[in-house]
Design goal:
With 670 residues, the chain is an alpha+beta fold. Helix content is 36%, strand content 29%. The longest helix has 38 residues, at 406-443. The protein starts with 7 loop residues before the first helix and ends in a 5-residue tail after the last strand.
Length: 670
């Protein structure tokens, strides 16, 4: 072996190291160090640089790594030799042969250097930075504690003890002795607890099998965590390193806690998002209750849920899930002054959390009036508050006792707030829908007059935005014996103004028609009235005057789609002249057209919402409607309209109101 290198036992120990070790001689030109020649590298070092020992030993740094000339490496190594002081350097490489973040601990060794290369991606804690010029001092800086043990065998070759052949300063301090007092001594003398802790058995197993061993040991009494590594040298010795990793473990624990908190926050955000989506989609109180039961309750983590709304001086149970009948019976009508915590929450707007059954019973001391707990042992009573108004209380029940930490309380408060907002929106929507529905029905005729020889049926389908009022209408107006006026129209807009205008237009048309005016005169007068009153709107209308006995029809179209006629032979649009909508211009002069309604024929009048919108062309909708009328049952107007509405005619989904009026003339009796 090269005399410049350490003895074989030390090299064997370095060979076992998981970190890279390098010994390099200084190359001089005169008194100046110009390079370093690689004299030793262990297997870990070869793995880091990606080359074999045969390619490395005996070669100079300038040839192996030319970049060391200008990247500061050689001057750094030179300073260690010249000053005799160990030094630390951290570098990052991204090359084909080596990639990573490394820490180089360099110490002077004879007329060269000894380098320990640490892959920072693999270490648990950074080694301490200290050192001196000797090899063993370098080992002191490289480990928190290090020792080399020689097996002691009995007559049967069984390992019964170990003798310490080397220990560094830190390792000796761990035994409470000096280096001189430990080296040469038996393990049983300097560390008898190794037998009780099981370390002796580990050392013996490594010495016998050669399999390395590593473990983290926690010592709660001194609040420390140590990493112990044990390996066997080529000479059969056992090398043991002790490294305190308390700080690293604490950091890892803190990181795990941070990750757990972050994951919890993400889960909370996702939970709130899912609840928000479900509640935003809910329009009615029934839909809100369904969303609360299917989405909010799982997000709150509870097994049961009750929603109590304020009603004068009491609480009304509006929704419940997971509660027993005896609990529901007590909650149905609860006085606002009751001791049940939900009553106080609905009264004050402040949440209440009960973490045990004992707290629940303490809140209701009178068992005669108390709401029973059922199978629950913890409760969250949450106010349903919107803009300072308390609508009631949300009660979430849990089967097991539990604490409500700040994050849980924040989540529950947010969930209750979302539920309260959705509930208030639904209540306002249902109120407006009710008002709109009543107004709409008031503006349409309650019944249509019966006329001998003529059957009729009508349908009105409001748009899905139920809180809005449309301007579609229809009417049948008796004029004289056997003569009726038939009208259908659509005032622009979907609001109360449109509905009010529709009522005015319908009433004006009815008034002019009853006087017996011709259809053209009726339409001209209605147009003049709209312009005179400055209603600032327009209305389409199809107005017909029908002599039932003769089947003669006089018609005027004002911007409205033509009716569809089905007789014994054909089905199609009635060819009528189209005039501008009512209210568009003072100069419009409406004129009449005539056509016949034969016996057993069908006439269908409709508004444009049935056949067109921006995504459904009018021609397509009219073709669909004609096909549906043609295939519909004969004579019964109600069945004909039901067939049309079930036949997939027009846009889907619909975006406008629809009015339909169907007339059938009785067949001639033979």
């Amino acid at each position: 072996m090269d005399d410049w290198l350490p003895d074989a036992q030390v090299l064997a120990m370095l060979d076992l190291e998981p970190q890279g070790w390098i010994l390099a001689r200084a190359v001089h030109e005169g008194r100046l160090i110009v390079d370093f020649e690689l004299a030793y590298i262990n297997d870990a070092g070869c793995g880091l640089v990606g080359r074999s020992r045969a390619e490395l030993i005996g070669r100079r740094y300038r040839h192996l790594w030319p970049e060391t000339v200008h990247d500061g490496t050689l001057p750094f190594y030179r300073s260690v030799v010249e000053t005799g002081k160990p030094a630390l350097r951290t570098v990052y490489y991204e090359r084909q042969s080596i990639t990573g973040h490394f820490e180089f601990r360099v110490g002077p060794y004879r007329d060269g250097i000894m380098v320990r290369c640490v892959d920072l991606r693999q270490v648990t804690v950074s080694p301490q930075s200290a050192g001196a010029v000797r090899l063993y001092d370098m080992l002191d800086t490289a480990f928190d504690g290090f020792t080399v043990l020689r097996p002691v065998r009995d007559a049967g070759a069984a390992i019964v003890d170990f003798v310490c052949e080397y220990v560094n300063q830190v390792g000796a301090k761990m035994t409470g002795r000096s280096v001189e007092d430990v080296i040469g001594q038996r393990l049983s003398d300097v560390s008898a607890h190794s037998w009780d802790s099981g370390l002796f058995d580990r050392y013996r197993t490594v010495a016998e099998t050669g399999e390395p061993w590593r473990q983290e040991l926690t010592y709660p009494e001194i609040s420390q965590v140590w990493e112990i590594k044990v390996g066997r040298t080529s000479g059969g010795h056992v090398a043991v390193s002790f490294r305190e990793i308390t700080e690293q473990v604490d950091k890892q624990r803190q990181l795990a806690d941070s990750v757990a908190r972050a994951e919890k926050a993400v889960a909370r955000a996702r939970s709130l998002e899912s609840v928000t989506v479900a509640l935003v989609a809910a329009s009615t109180t029934a839909q809100v209750y369904a969303a609360i039961g299917s989405v909010l309750r799982p997000s709150a983590g509870g097994q049961s849920l009750a929603l109590l709304l304020r009603q004068e001086q009491s609480l009304r149970l509006a929704y419940h899930a997971g509660y027993e009948p005896e609990v529901i019976a007590r909650l149905h009508d609860l006085p606002i002054e009751h001791c049940y915590p939900a009553a106080a929450v609905a009264h004050t707007g402040q949440p209440c959390y009960l973490t045990s059954l004992a707290q629940f019973h303490a809140a209701q001391p009178d068992p005669e009036t108390a709401v029973p707990p059922g199978s629950r042992q913890a409760w969250a009573f949450l106010p349903l508050t919107v803009a300072g108004e308390v609508l009631g209380a949300l009660v979430v029940g849990y089967r097991e006792p539990r604490d409500f930490d700040p994050d849980t309380r924040s989540t529950l408060t947010a969930l209750a707030g979302l539920g309260a907002q959705a509930l208030q929106r639904a209540m306002l929507f249902e109120t407006s829908v009710s008002i709109a529905s009543e107004l709409q029905h008031a503006l349409l005729p309650a019944t249509l007059p019966q006329t001998a020889g003529l059957r009729h049926a009508a349908r009105y389908l409001p748009w899905t935005r139920g809180a809005e009022v449309g301007g579609d209408w229809y009417d049948i107006i008796p004029i004289s014996d056997g003569v009726v006026a038939v009208a259908i129209g659509d005032v622009a807009g979907h609001n109360t103004a449109a509905a009010a205008t529709m009522g005015q237009v319908r009433d004006a048309l009815r008034a002019y028609a009853i006087t017996g005016q011709r259809p053209a005169t009726v339409m001209n007068n209605v147009n003049h009235l709209i312009r005179t009153l400055r209603l600032n709107t327009m209305a389409t209308c199809c107005y017909l005057q029908l002599d039932v006995a003769e089947g003669a029809v006089t018609a005027v179209l004002a911007g409205h789609p033509a009716p569809i006629l089905r007789d014994a032979h054909t089905t199609g649009l009635v060819r009528l002249a189209t005039h501008p909508a009512l209210g568009v211009s003072d100069s419009v002069l409406y004129r009449e057209d005539r056509f016949d309604l034969p016996p057993a024929a069908t006439l269908v009048l409709y508004t444009d919402g049935l056949v067109e919108d921006r995504s459904h062309p009018l021609d397509r909708g009219l073709a669909e409607l004609c096909a549906a009328v043609h295939s519909a049952p004969r004579l019964d107007p109600a069945e004909i309209l039901d067939h049309i509405l079930a036949g997939g005619v027009g846009p889907s989904p619909r975006r406008d109101d629809i009015a339909l009026l169907c007339l059938t003339r009785d067949p001639v009796e033979r």
